[in-house]
Amino acid sequence: MTDQPSNLFASRLQAYQERIERALPELAGDPDPLTGGLVVTAARYSLLAGGKRIRPVLLLAAADMLAPDQDEHLAGRLLRFACALEMIHTYSLIHDDLPCMDDDDLRRGRPTCHKVYGEAMAVLAGDHLLNRAYEVMLSAVEPSRPETLAAAQRVSAAAGRSGMIGGQVLDLQAENTRLSPDALERLHQMKTGALLAVPAEAAALLCGADEDTVRQLAAFGRHLGLAFQIRDDMLDQTADAKTLGKTAGKDQRDMKSTFVTLFGLEEAGLRLRQETDEAEESLEALDKTYDTKFLVSLARFLLRRRH
Question: Considering its fold, how many domains does the chain have in total?
Answer without folding.
Answer: 1
